[in-house]
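@here heads up, posting the sequence + SMILES for the pyridoxal-5'-phosphate run so it's all in one place. Ping me if the SMILES looks off, I pulled it from an old spreadsheet.
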Amino acid sequence: MGRSIAELVAERTGDQFELHDKLMNTQMVRVLRTIGFDRTYVRAEGPYLYDDAGHEYLDLLSGYGVFAVGRNHPAVVSALREVLDANLPGLVQMDVSLLSGLLAERFLETVPDGLEKVFFANSGAETVEAAIKFARYSTGRPGIVYCDHAFHGLTQGALSLNGDEIFREGFGPLLPGTHRIPFDDLEALERALHRHEVAAFIVEPIQGHGVNVPSDSFLPEAARLCRENGALFVADEVQTGMGRTGRMWAIEHWGVEPDMLLAAKALSGGFVPVGAVALRKSVFDRVFSNMVRAPVHGSTFSKNNLAMAAGIATLDVIREENLVQNAAKLGEALLDDFRAMVDRYSFVKEVRGKGMMQAIEFAPPASLRHRAAWKLLDSAQKGLFAQLVTVPLFQRHRILSQTSGHDAAIVKFLPPLVIDEDDRKRITTALDAVVADTENVGGAIWDLGKTLARAALNMRAGR
Ligand SMILES: Cc1ncc(COP(=O)(O)O)c(C=O)c1O
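bot reply: prediction finished. Complex structure tokens:
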């Protein structure tokens, strides 16, 4: 018999960097080593990661948003164990499974009015691919309108709706019939809807890249314009959904009823790939219009029992632990803490977000000395200043966060919705200390800046 997974993990822990360097994404390993994020994590629980030296890290990245209920939530673990122990007949295919029906029932109870059908998928990108196909088929039109800085995933169709060149470059030709507009620009949307045969407008209610929050009229008016022009309004809630912004779905902040709502990430508690499209019955029925068309769109592993059971357990946890309310309350408290830094520290330009989706944007201040220091970093890599915050937050305070947006200095937090007051204090105290240090040009943080700038220049030179 082969080694058990526990034995393998015990024997080989620490080998992961060498394995990835040799067999997988070498550049990712270089990045982690350069910024000193190459830790060996051995355990995870709730909002915390633990390394092999027993250090605790507060994880404000949440696996890009999948761990809304925290890592290894016991209720989700128990649901998964139950599925495995029950020897259930999964993926029969010429059958319909109970667990997917039960998740559909629970999921639809949470979404805005008007959405009566569910299509399950295996990832956020797969929900986007489904939305493109459903919109095109049901309207008979080719066009899809999307926004600058949008992120809808990296498969070919989703990539065609990506608003950042860095992701698109060299992967074309991308899908025809796509039209990009500035985010939060109703006139541009109206022009696009008039000029082209548009099947759908797809939008993140709050953009993940940069955490851009639209003005209050944008989403309701966009939905109205879509309706008037016969296009579908698709809310991509892959990141903003499941309580992240302090409402179950971010679109609720603006009282909008989309024609399709896309969910993924947090839906399975972070364990199993999953995606779900909630859509109007009229749209669904046009695509799946007769028995011959029953298999016209789908994917082999969608509706698998592990994902479905994890989804049911996760929705229960979110409700029973009042996580949406916690995200609203603690998220707003954190945003207030961060906003207080705008006046206190010269590099802090703006704080944005809702609930547990937060960004702090930095910009060069008035002082010549500070501007010169900023410029030095920015000329090595645009937005590099943000790493002067994320790296010490991690190395000194053991808080994991990310930079966001490729042309601006933005630090982004996606805390698990389960964090508490103590975690809030830990975040605010640490962030305050790090940002205060950036004021001291010539101090240790700016030495780090020089190291990062050199690494960025080397990277640019292909070294
Ligand atoms: C808004 C949004 N849509 C779609 C996706 C793609 O999801 P996945 O990575 O599961 O394909 C993401 C991922 O970050 C996202 O943030």
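MO: The longest helix spans residues 323-344.
MO: One more: The two ends are 44 Å apart (CA to CA).
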